[in-house]
């Protein structure tokens, strides 16, 4: 199955944070796309009637400096407005998974196949953005959240450093994840 061609709705994050795209990219590169964590989307046929007067945008990545394809260390995100007449050229509207959707656009991840979960609005008077705002009322985990969770990396030394350093070792979670990967592979 090919990855879906999804649009983003106006109002769902005014600016996509590049650092979140980098995090998503690194996780997918290290672990692959985890099938049980699908990207949620609204199929286009249903989405067209639930936009609430908002525009749809096609995310693109371009190289920020120099020539050639965008790389994870050299990119910028541009949103291109899509005309209503062209909506049917797309599979749907991204509900949850914008950062992963963009991460999958990089050449190094083009062969990774994502999993998708179609979303159907359960309330007739609800539009897509209302659903997304309810869906995203939580927040993503920070390094501090990982430290506080006491999740083991599987490496005694890394776990000890995490215990000793705690919040002072900002780089530690990434280092620990690489060690964990070594044990799993």
Keywords:
6-stranded mixed beta sheet, 185 residues, 6 strands, alpha/beta, single chain, 7 helices
Structure characterization notes:
The chain is an alpha/beta fold. It has a six-stranded mixed β-sheet. It is built from seven helices and six strands. It is globular and about 55 Å long. Helix 6 packs antiparallel against helix 7 (172-184).
How does the SSE layout of this entry go?
Elements: E1 6-9, H1 18-31, E2 39-43, H2 44-47, E3 56-62, E4 76-82, E5 92-96, H3 98-103, E6 116-118, H4 128-135, H5 143-149, H6 156-165, H7 172-184
Parallel strand pairs: 1-5, 2-6
Antiparallel strand pairs: 1-3, 2-5, 3-4
Helix pairs in contact: 6-7
Q: Which series of helices and strands comes N to C?
A: EHEHEEEHEHHHH
Please summarize the sheet with the most strands: 6 strands, mixed
If strands are numbered along the chain, what order do they take across the biggest sheet? Answer: 4-3-1-5-2-6
Q: Report the principal-axis shape.
A: globular
Overall helicity = 25-40%
Structure summary, number of beta strands: 6
Q: What is the terminal-to-terminal distance?
A: 26 Å
Average of per-residue pLDDT values: 82
Please compute the radius of gyration using only Cα atoms.
19 Å
The tally of helices reads: 7
The unreliable regions are 167-172, 177-181
Strand content: 15-25%
Structural class: alpha/beta
Question: What is the structure about, briefly put?
Answer:
The chain has 185 residues and is α/β, with parallel strands linked by helices. The protein has helices spanning 18-31, 44-47, 98-103, 128-135, 143-149, 156-165, 172-184, and strands at 6-9, 39-43, 56-62, 76-82, 92-96, 116-118.
């Amino acid at each position: 199955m090919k990855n879906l061609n999804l649009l983003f709705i106006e109002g769902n994050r005014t600016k996509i944070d590049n650092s979140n795209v980098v995090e998503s990219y690194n996780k997918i590169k290290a672990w692959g796309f985890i099938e049980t964590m699908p990207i949620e989307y609204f199929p286009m046929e249903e989405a067209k009637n639930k936009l609430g007067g908002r525009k749809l945008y096609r995310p693109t990545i371009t190289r920020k400096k120099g020539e050639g394809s965008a790389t994870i260390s050299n990119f910028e995100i541009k949103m291109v407005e899509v005309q209503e007449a062209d909506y049917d050229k797309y599979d749907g509207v991204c509900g949850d998974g914008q950062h992963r959707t963009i991460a999958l656009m990089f050449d190094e991840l083009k062969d990774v196949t994502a999993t998708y979960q179609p979303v159907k609005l359960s309330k007739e008077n609800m539009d897509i953005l209302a659903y997304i705002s309810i869906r995203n009322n939580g927040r993503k985990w920070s390094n501090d959240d990982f430290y506080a969770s006491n999740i083991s990396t599987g490496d005694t030394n890394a776990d000890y450093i995490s215990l000793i350093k705690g919040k002072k070792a900002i780089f530690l979670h990434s280092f620990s994840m690489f060690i964990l990967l070594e044990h799993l592979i």
